[in-house]
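Design review, sub-item: ligand-bound model
Attendees: FS, YL, KQ
YL presented the inputs for the L-homoserine complex:
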Amino acid sequence: MNSVTVRAPSSTANLGPGFDVFGLALDAFYDEVQLTKQKHGISIITDDSIPVSPRKNTTGLVVEYMKKKFRIKSGVQIRIKKGVPAGFGMGSSAASAAATAVAFNKLFSLGLDGNTLVECAGVGELASAGSIHYDNVSASVLGGFIIVRTKPLDVIKILPPSDLRLVVAVPKITVPKKKTQVSRSVVPKHIPLSDSVVNLANASSIVAGFVRKDSELIGKSIQDVIIEPARAHLIPGFYQVKKNSLKAGALGVTISGAGPSVISFATKKSNLKKIADAMKKGFANKRIDSQIVICKPSNGAKTI
Ligand code: HSE
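KQ shared the predicted structure:
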């Protein structure tokens, strides 16, 4: 085999109270990465406006890391097609990193397990997020709902209920270059025990919801009293979008990953169009246009 192409989904991290721990793959957007063996070095080809220097590119870092870790002598050409909007809390760099790790594994017949693929893809997050966290990459690699344990890295996947639906509002605003660093800098270093108890109860209920395939339990447990209040001011119109969506029937609403996208949790039976319109109006109140996507949980990265 000389060439492999992999498609990896967007994802939402945190799901409210599961900061840096929960991830959910979403069939909203996809990135495609093709890896081809070449004689020497690592080269990147893309039509998208992303860095093509391997050390500054998510996929380049993953290939460099995997080449070294698995002692692969061959050079690798990387072709990238971005579909996941970058910098909006939809796991854009993670999707590219996940696709790369899965493609590399296949191209060189390494037979790696899920945890190792996630570990390799996580290296790519350094390029954009400045720190490694595995919530988005795990979801993009494995699909479904993910719980990330660290020290040592251990990723747990649960299949989402088939009636779970998500409505994502991606505001058309300019995001800071180092958006994730900015939104991580406002997260409190110390929290009251009572807040941690509330979040722990909600996070546990989300897990129970996925295990029981109970979308209503998942939706109503999407409540975060620690990170969301600290980050809300970075998203103009956030509280209006949230209020409108809940009024339109969403079960729970929160920031998608580090934002600025906002995600509503609902079921197949909800009036999804009404929720979508309500979210759009919330941003429009602040004169902000937004892209609204109604979607389902997704499978993980796949060879195409
Ligand atoms: N869990 C991360 C955060 C996701 O919220 O900062 C962003 O990459």
